[in-house]
Structure formats: C-alpha cells, structure tokens
Amino acid sequence: MTDKSILSNIRGVSFGAVLCCFLWGSATPSIKTGYVLFNIASSDTASVILFAGVRFLFAGFFTAVPGSILQRKILVLHWYFDCK
C-alpha cells in the first residue's frame, strides 16, 4: 500500500519548504509596508499593537476557513480549563 500524502513526495515537501521560507521572509517587509499605508508611526505604540491584533485576526480567519473547508465542518475553538 502506498501513501498518497503530499508529505511523502519530494516535490510536495520542497514546494512547502519554499512557500514557508517565502512567507516567513516577507513578513517584516509586509509589516513595514502596512505601517506606511496606514500612516502608523513606530513610536505610536497603541496603533502598532492594534495593527498586530488585526493581522493576527486575519491570520486566524485565513487559517480557519481553509481548515473548515478541508474538514467539511466548521472548526470551533474549545476552551478547556482544569482548575483542580
């Protein structure tokens, strides 16, 4: 029996590695460009934190939507607190 996973194919692994390197390397230039586009000064701490929060909100959205499509169900966050 053969595994049909993309991670078992050298081309799939190579593509994934190149994609991750591209996304990782483009993070800082994208953030700096966002500061310029939205007129955020580096010394304006509140705006920098708000901009980071919006970026993480969009990142979560862009992660949950494809995950929900691939799983064919809505992904729901469950909080479990064990306070014993």
Features:
84 residues; mainly alpha
Explain what this protein looks like in three dimensions.
It is a single chain. The protein is mostly helical. It has helices at residues 10-25, 27-37, 45-71. The chain is flat, with a radius of gyration of 19 Å.
Write the layout of secondary structure elements.
Blueprint lengths: L9 H16 L1 H11 L7 H27 L13
Mean pLDDT: 89
Q: What is the global morphology?
A: flat
Give the number of helices. Answer: 3
What's the helix-strand series?
HHH
Can you summarize the main beta sheet? none
Briefly note the structural class of the backbone: mainly alpha
Strand content: under 5%
Query: End-to-end distance, in Å?
Result: 46 Å
Strand segment count: 0
Regarding quaternary structure, what we see is single chain
Helical coverage, percent range: 55-70%
TL;DR of this structure?
This protein is mainly α and 84 residues long.
